[in-house]
Fold:
Amino acid sequence: MRLITFYDKEKKEELVFFTNNFKLAAATIAELYKHRWQIELFFKWIKQNLKIKTFLGTSENAVMTQVWAAMIYYLLLAFIMFQTKYARTMHELARIIGEVLLEHVGIIEVLRMKFVNLKLLKPDQPQLALSLKF
Structure:
């Protein structure tokens, strides 16, 4: 094993890395770890914001399709929030859209409604009962 210490001038802190690579320079290994950390932060952002917990497929195409679809959904929500100056969280917006998605009402109208009126938009419907006769 090889212990590498690197001083980050931007953050003014010393970083310590373990590696089994004896061929690359210490600065190169520190740069690789820095890029790797950016990738880790990107995947953390994906999990938190795109709500992808597991991938539905394992092929590159399946993963990329799921990530692109989630990113498009996220960007559409962000665009709606920006255009309407929606003051609540993106999570609330996603929940509201999910609730009224199949209703015949415009999304702009829904976002202008007060929270109390949203409940009136979709009244509680009784659960369908299945009568069993023996």
Q: What stands out?
A: The CA atoms of residues 45 and 85 lie 23 Å apart.
